[in-house]
Amino acid sequence: MHFAEVEFVDIVEFAAVVAFAVYGIIRGAERKMDVVGLFAVAFMAAFGGGTVRDLVLNRQPLFWVENSHYTVVVFWLAVFASFFPRLLVKCEKYLVFPDALGLGLWAIAGTVYAQEAGASSFISVLLGVTTGTFGGVLADIICNKVPTIFRKSNIYATCAFVGGYLYLGLRAIDLAENAAMLISITVTVVLRLLAVRYKIILPQREYYEGDEK
Amino acid sequence: MHFAEVEFVDIVEFAAVVAFAVYGIIRGAERKMDVVGLFAVAFMAAFGGGTVRDLVLNRQPLFWVENSHYTVVVFWLAVFASFFPRLLVKCEKYLVFPDALGLGLWAIAGTVYAQEAGASSFISVLLGVTTGTFGGVLADIICNKVPTIFRKSNIYATCAFVGGYLYLGLRAIDLAENAAMLISITVTVVLRLLAVRYKIILPQREYYEGDEK
Amino acid sequence: MHFAEVEFVDIVEFAAVVAFAVYGIIRGAERKMDVVGLFAVAFMAAFGGGTVRDLVLNRQPLFWVENSHYTVVVFWLAVFASFFPRLLVKCEKYLVFPDALGLGLWAIAGTVYAQEAGASSFISVLLGVTTGTFGGVLADIICNKVPTIFRKSNIYATCAFVGGYLYLGLRAIDLAENAAMLISITVTVVLRLLAVRYKIILPQREYYEGDEK
């Protein structure tokens, strides 16, 4: 790869891979996994969402087969992290940061790729949301946690949804691609962090009368 | 899409999408999910089985990317349903109907597509069964239920199996495609409903002597 | 298929399918599944890993669609096994053998196919490991066991990793393909069996001070 060929979306993708790999590693450390387990969780978190997206869009070779250095980076991240298990456990309370960052980066990268492949607006945003959430879902399922997306909790997938449509809107008013990506990624990440901080949930009718839970 | 181009198999597919979306929504409501959760479960239930089928048969674009109005329909179904949470919870006892309907519709549509793609008879029926059961399996796994197909219970996958082979048999004696589909779908759905009503199980040797459970 | 066309890698693949089908059937029997359940678990164990590999490498048709007799063999294995449920339950203590055998056979076959498709060394070995472990992971998830690969336990994925790199090394020094496969499969299987027998685990720093568990 010549440096001149590196596009902004490649940088976003690389950052997203690292963010979700870190998420997977910390989740795995909670379960006291050994280095192979850490790598397996990191790998599925970092590549799960994008793999689904590429298969759906029939993009071959898959992004991590084409950019095989991604897998090497994740491998060494897991090996490196495995030397500092106590540090990892302490990092659990900061888990929301790689999660929010990965969500935003993946969601917009997914939307961009789906648009390039000629998908409709709704499908593009949907694939963005899928790409942005699926890695975390896989890591959570492996580690036996109920995935955030399926819990009644602070808005999560909704942030990616908003970010995806914001990107499409900014592009529709002819903003440059990179600027549109940067803005919509930032909005997604900040929205998610605010949602966690201020416990923003979706308005919802109650399932039972007087249901307080 | 021109109306004249709509084939019977398209109608079957649309009905199947709606049936499994409803199944997913009711399952999600049991877990008190918010509107995003309901949509996520409905989406995976409605499109999971067909996605596996399309990937296996290398049919690109995937059926729900090509017919992107399917995703919009599922989205609005979930939004609409989220306004009536108590009603959804009451619907749980009727869950067997969308489940049986989706099973029959998907199983036969899956068999038809696999035949068109030139798969062998056994593989065609198998893909029909996969398509017909996988959506429910995904919804159940998400909602932390043991999927019906893996439980020792009333015949389920077997109904789809019978329906698939019935379709192939009817086609072999030169019955028109639409008639063969209609008959085999009906048989599958009715068989499943009878299985639930009369607790039809497969004959089975006991795992332990005097095993009553 | 003419007999003359059968390559060594085809024999390895067939043996791997049978080994993992047996693994799936015994795991299913533990959960007292009926014949359909046994088939479903055997099917996912036998074909899960290879399906992921083929989708990643864009090898179409999938290996079990092209060789549709594989599915028929697994079907009759499950039907046959369902007549001897008590025997299956007794076989549980020998589960390590089909598991180790399937791991070795699948891992090397996966590495070979990835090399043929032009993947990098690391990706090839990784896909070998994925192919060798994913079937067992699926069967374990279905049967509600924590998959071996994610547990802190005797080395498992590591054996496949060693075997895959051994294969590449032997090929690099110009050993014939079949000999390289035979040696690296044997090493993988024996290593795994030794790991179980002598409780070989990866060296690991402790998660907590004085952590004994």
TrEMBL record, chains A, B, C:
<feature type="transmembrane region" description="Helical">
    <location>
        <begin position="155"/>
        <end position="173"/>
    </location>
</feature>
<keyword id="KW-1133">Transmembrane helix</keyword>
<feature type="transmembrane region" description="Helical">
    <location>
        <begin position="179"/>
        <end position="195"/>
    </location>
</feature>
<feature type="domain" description="Glycine transporter">
    <location>
        <begin position="98"/>
        <end position="170"/>
    </location>
</feature>
<dbReference type="InterPro" id="IPR005115">
    <property type="entry name" value="Gly_transporter"/>
</dbReference>
<feature type="transmembrane region" description="Helical">
    <location>
        <begin position="6"/>
        <end position="26"/>
    </location>
</feature>
<keyword id="KW-1003">Cell membrane</keyword>
<keyword id="KW-0812">Transmembrane</keyword>
<feature type="domain" description="Glycine transporter">
    <location>
        <begin position="11"/>
        <end position="84"/>
    </location>
</feature>
<feature type="transmembrane region" description="Helical">
    <location>
        <begin position="33"/>
        <end position="50"/>
    </location>
</feature>
<keyword id="KW-0472">Membrane</keyword>
<feature type="transmembrane region" description="Helical">
    <location>
        <begin position="70"/>
        <end position="89"/>
    </location>
</feature>
<comment type="similarity">
    <text>Belongs to the UPF0126 family.</text>
</comment>
<dbReference type="Pfam" id="PF03458">
    <property type="entry name" value="Gly_transporter"/>
</dbReference>
<dbReference type="GO" id="GO:0005886">
    <property type="term" value="C:plasma membrane"/>
</dbReference>
<feature type="transmembrane region" description="Helical">
    <location>
        <begin position="121"/>
        <end position="143"/>
    </location>
</feature>
<feature type="transmembrane region" description="Helical">
    <location>
        <begin position="96"/>
        <end position="115"/>
    </location>
</feature>
<protein>
    <submittedName>
        <fullName>Trimeric intracellular cation channel family protein</fullName>
    </submittedName>
</protein>
